[in-house]
From TrEMBL:
Occurrences of domain Flagellin N-terminal (ranges): 3-139
Gene Ontology CC terms: bacterial-type flagellum; extracellular region
UniProt entry keywords in alphabetical sequence: Bacterial flagellum, Cell projection, Cilium, Flagellum, Secreted
Subcellular location: Secreted; Bacterial flagellum
Name listed for the protein in its UniProt record: Flagellin
Record organism: Ligilactobacillus ruminis SPM0211
Length: 352
């Protein structure tokens, strides 16, 4: 029996320390809810869990990006919805102006609303913005959305110039057409006629009114009016002829405008259809990102998170074995006391 080295106590202490460490690890896992609390717990699993966590975080941000993209599309689509309404009203005005029962003055009144609507289309195109980004003025042909957690996972929102000249295919409000002689002429997008014919009409009207006023004044003074009457008749005929020409031209212009409005409606419809298709694609992308984030989170949880039931079983075992080891350590420490009993049994030396 040896007293210098208590091997049994050393072994009992080693087991006691081992089970205490296991109990501490179980307590840490249960309190944190994670199986991996440091890379020492599972180096390979920790690496995988970190990469999955980064991926899940990126998917969530990509989902928000896609939602912002839908908001942008809805902003542009809302503006184009109003443009569509304006084009519908423009077509109504063109149909009205094409009627042969109207005079130049009637068409001029109709054209005032038409020109105001034309300016409104330009205003909508110039002022439609999302987060200070112009959407419909032609400054951007596309906006690229980052809709994935990795580089290159993008989607483009195609945009076009939706102002008057762009959708009517005009230049400064003028449309180039080929006349009956095969020559290219510029037609003003209006419902009255060309500026030259309108000027002739106004000049003829002023000349006729001036001659009529002179005739009335001469009659009031009792002067000879035969020459003036002939002049008034000639200027009236010229005025009526120009008026007829202007009416025919106004009807032709109204018909041209009607056709161009139809083309403009088709152009805006095509742009809205593209935006609608992209919005639907983004909605599917959002659903995909959401499902991917859920599945990756589930996979990350299986690697990183703690099974509480299993860990409670481990903790209970470690706690029990720690108590047993402590009891055996106490027992092992008491064994050297038997040596004292043996020593006490020796005969005592005689005292001198």
């Amino acid at each position: 029996m040896r007293i210098n080295t208590n091997v049994d106590a050393m072994r009992a202490y080693s087991n006691y320390a081992t089970w205490n460490a296991a109990k501490s690890k179980s307590l840490l896992r249960i309190s944190s809810g994670k199986r991996i609390n440091s890379f020492a717990d599972d180096p390979a699993g920790a690496c995988i869990a970190v990469k999955m966590g980064v991926q899940v975080s990126g998917l969530k941000v990509a989902k928000r990006n896609a939602q912002d993209g839908i908001s942008l599309i809805q902003t542009a689509e809302g503006a184009l919805n109003e443009t569509h309404s304006i084009l519908g009203r423009m077509r109504d005005l063109a149909v009205q102006a094409a009627n042969g029962t109207l005079t130049y003055e009637d068409r001029a009144a109709i054209d005032k609303e038409f020109q105001a609507l034309r300016q409104e289309i330009d205003r909508i195109g110039n002022s439609s913005q999302f987060n200070t980004i112009n959407l419909l003025d032609g400054s951007r042909n596309k906006i690229t959305l980052q809709v994935g957690a990795n580089a290159g996972q993008t989607m483009d929102v195609e945009l076009s110039d939706m102002r008057f000249d762009a959708i009517f295919k005009t230049t400064n409000g003028k449309l180039s057409v080929t006349d009956a002689n095969g020559q290219t002429v510029d037609v003003e997008m209006g419902l009255c006629g060309s500026r030259e014919t309108i000027k002739k009409y106004n000049d003829a009207k002023d000349a006729y009114n001036a001659a009529a006023n002179s005739l009335a004044l001469a009659k009031a003074k009792g002067q000879n009016t035969s020459a003036l009457e002939q002049e008034v008749a000639a200027k009236k005929a010229a005025f009526e002829k120009v008026g007829q020409d202007l009416n025919r031209e106004g009807q032709n212009y109204a018909t041209i405008v009607m056709n161009q409005v139809d083309k403009a409606i088709s152009t805006v419809s095509l742009q809205r259809a593209g935006l609608g298709a992209t919005q639907n694609a983004l909605q599917h992308t959002i659903n995909y990102l959401e499902n991917s984030a859920i599945n990756l989170s589930d996979a990350q949880s299986r690697i990183e998170d703690c099974d509480i039931a299993e860990e409670m079983m481990n903790f209970t075992k470690a706690n029990l074995m720690s108590q047993v080891a402590a009891a055996m350590l106490a027992q092992a420490n008491s064994e050297p006391n038997t040596v004292l009993m043996l020593l006490n049994s020796l005969p005592k030396a005689n005292a001198f």
